[in-house]
Amino acid sequence: MLRAVILDLDDTLYPEASYVASGFRAAGAALAAQHGVAGFAAMATAVASEGFAGKVFDEALRRLGADTSLAPFCLAAYRAHRPEIELFPEADEALRALRPRFALGVLTDGWLEVQTQKVAVLGLAARVDAVVCTDAFGRAHWKPAPTGYEAIAEALRVQHTACAYVADNPAKDFITARALGWRTVQVARPGQTHSAVPPTPAHAAERVAEGLREAVAMLQEWGADG
Ligand SMILES: [Mg+2]
Q: Domains in the chain, ordered, with CATH?
């Protein structure tokens, strides 16, 4: 029976694009204040929205006629900033609905410094029982490496077969969860950052939901089984 629900962070609990916009604003403000270069946030947003394949920060600086050696400064400001982000309204509802019934966890990839700030701003530590950032174990342990899945199941003191993972990115989120025996739900929303199409059938989630409301209904059903 399902006992634990583990949620991904980016584009599952809050819109990832809002973090990127917040980071561009912070990098732009730092660049203007310390190096006198204006217009970075708008330019980086324009470059990113084109689906630019190269380094967005370098390209934005180049188009502004600024020195591209400032890119590491911008990246550092981006990663260190305190993000202006909010949970999806339905994420707030989902956490309330699931908390009385299941052990709850967050399992997230991404730079530890960045993910830690997101978790803090969103107030997630108080709303779930455990948070695991895979980067705490090193870059080699990002999903789909099993380390994070093992760590969160252990932190929640549950068997793998009692876990479900709710996430957005079939390229990396579900293949290991399924191999370990977890249930899986893909949340597929319009405008999400990553492709909703699994690269192979083994990467697909067991179920696909249009949003967290539908995902919660699936989880409640699984929680009531056997
Ligand atoms: Mg995600």
A: 4-15+86-224 (3.40.50.1000), 17-80 (no CATH)
